[in-house]
Amino acid sequence: MKQDKALDVVVAGLAVVDIIGKPVDVSKLPKRGGLQLIDNITMTTGGNVSNVGGDLTKLGFRVGAITRVGEDTLGDVLLRQYSEYSIDTSGVIIDRSAQTSATIVSVDTSGERTFLHTRGCMAQFTVSDILNHLDMIGRATCLAFGYLGLLPQMQKDFPRLFQTVKEKTGVKILLDTAGQPPRLAKSQLKQMLRWVDYFFPSFEEAAALTGEKTPEAIVECLIEAGAANVVGVKLGAKGCYIADRTRAEYIQPRKVKKIVDTTGAGDAFVAGFLAGTLKGLDPFQAARIGNAVAASCVTAIGASTAIEHLDQYLTLVQNSLTD
Hints:
Layout: E1 9-13, E2 16-22, E3 40-46, H1 47-59, E4 63-70, H2 73-84, E5 88-95, E6 102-107, E7 113-118, H3 127-131, H4 134-138, E8 142-148, H5 158-169, E9 172-177, H6 186-193, E10 198-199, H7 203-210, H8 215-224, E11 230-234, E12 240-243, E13 248-251, H9 265-278, H10 283-297, H11 310-322
Parallel strand pairs: 1-4, 1-8, 2-6, 4-5, 8-9, 9-10, 10-11
Antiparallel strand pairs: 2-3, 6-7, 11-12, 12-13
Helix pairs in contact: 1-9, 5-6, 7-8, 9-10, 10-11
């Protein structure tokens, strides 16, 4: 769907189709040539473009996408989903030389995931694919880009990408990570983070990136590396640790009665944080929204299935602060 009106967020980076099987005990797979029955198999869209983008539209925001999909059935699945979400797809490139990126996701009884992934056409995704759509980015308030660590062919060009986007459009930039701990020298990290407004790696990713062992030390390292605005560490079931230049705070998680599938929980936090920020909340209030959206995410199979409108999370978080 192509649109010419203003956008709230442009999401750029990885788009993938996920084939989710549940429950799968990867430590007890069937013998070679054998068969094992599981309860269900679901096809859904994944990657930050699908997850953050879909979550944000369900939260009530206008979204544009920049990514690559193959000219195949899986690409059609992604485009159809984006159309249902009313995402502006004028930045989506149809790649006729490679298949759509896809992942087999095995979910065990605790909700933990194991991945088998083919990069497909995302191996050919370049900085130019994004810079060729600066007009779209300029219609938004924020660019959400992911993932650091999963787009190695682009990584050396990230500083140039973020600097150009910042200087040409002035939008806020969120950089996200997922799954694969990024490998960067601290000098490279410094070149990159000076242009990034929001950066929230998971604890494992952040520890690998900085060499530090506590959220406090990790955040201090990121700030010393030149992080321009807000940084933090996603701590899963323990919530998150968020800091800006003047304040740092642990944000407690929302309690969940039953975890069904943790797929997309980190993306849901990002979407919730951006939603709160776009609504005018400070980073710590926005992180509470992020935690609440992530808590919803894990209660159903699929990254965006259980996401509600932002108003419900605003009420939920406000009520928890006054209890």
